[in-house]
Amino acid sequence: MKKQYVKYIMALGHFCVDFTQGTLSAVLPFLIAAHHYSYATAASLVMVTNLVGSVVQPAFGVLADKIDRPHMVTVGALLAGGGMAAVGFIPSFWGLLIAVIITGIGVAMLHPQAARMVNRMADDDNMGMSMGIFSFGGNAGFTLGPVVAAGAITLLGMKGTLTFLIPAFVFALIMGLFYRNYEGEAKMAPREKETASMPTDDWWGAFLKLGILITCRSIIFSGYSTFLILYLIEEFSLSKPAGSALLSLYFGIGALSSLLGGKLADVSGLKKTLVFSCCILVVGTMVFAFSSSLVLAVCMIVVLGLGSNIGYSAMVTLGQLYLPNHIGLASGVTLGLSVSIGGILAPVLGTLGDAHGLRVVFFILAGLAVLAMLISIIVPGRGKGH
């Protein structure tokens, strides 16, 4: 397998795990209806799977730094798909917790290993685009997951979650066919194209600032992923399938934006792309929070999709540049934080939504968008053109 194909195969794996991860939020309304859960209880399922990811994913990143383990991406995809498939067959809350924990472990296994390989096999002048392609795979999974979940469960009942085994098995088959060549590419020597303009010392202070920014972005992304459907149903009386379609619109715009952001990062630089993304996010969250019009709210969903993901590949690539000696760890933390921290705090937002209404949740998310924008301005660039 030629190295230029690796980013596409890893994007497919990213699609598979985020296909399942993005599904959980779309399944929440069905779980609430079936088991009579509160917002906070349902959101705790999101919290658990993301808590597992935030704890385990950096550990898998450390393992990836020590030695490449291409088989982890296959096992991760199968665990993620299997855990989500089981959700539709489990009647108890504790059983559901175990299923989402398995899903979280599977997601955590794939991300750092896959992102590290994409980084090592990218040329210096297209690192942003390579990571953008990888990011697109994940965002595309988030996009299709809610639509497939709503359609499958509507047609087949909760047993429709079996659908989520399909992409995992397809990816496992592809990895089985190309495993030997893939393993050889994965174990290639470290890139020799580093120059004096690309520092090789770790910059932990800058990585910490980036982590705070990513945390804000994560809470915003998870807040919209978890509560957007419920809010649209409550505020605008939309049906569950219609709400799922708009959530997929949010993810779909984000998927396309990740490609646009990757190209923009290569042309304009990583930091400028990050600041631009955060500014768009402020506009989207502010207007959405105050909107009482469905048309305006839908328009802001498009803006939010742009703001949430144009800077996604820039964030991950900057993290890898800040820690060039710990690329797997940097990938695990940045990719983990980008989703998991927000999921951990989802029950807190759910509790506020139960007590004060879901609109309050979106006011809080707008405030976090402002904080993210301010931090993006002080986050340093690194390396030539970044």
Provide a concise account of the structure shown.
The chain is mainly alpha-helical and 386 residues long. Helix content is 81%, strand content 0%.
Number of DSSP E strands: 0
Q: What overall geometry do the principal axes of the alpha carbons give?
A: globular
Mean pLDDT: 83
**Tally of separate domains:** 1
Strand content: under 5%
Q: Given the structure, what is the number of helices?
A: 16
End-to-end span in angstroms? 30 Å
- At the third CATH level, what is the topology name? Growth Hormone, Chain: A
Quickly give the structural class: mainly alpha
CATH class descriptor name: Mainly Alpha
Helix-strand sequence: HHHHHHHHHHHHHHHH
Largest sheet entry? none
State the CATH superfamily name: MFS general substrate transporter like domains
Low-pLDDT residue spans: 189-197
CA-based gyration radius: 19 Å
Percent helix range:
over 70%
CATH architecture: Up-down Bundle
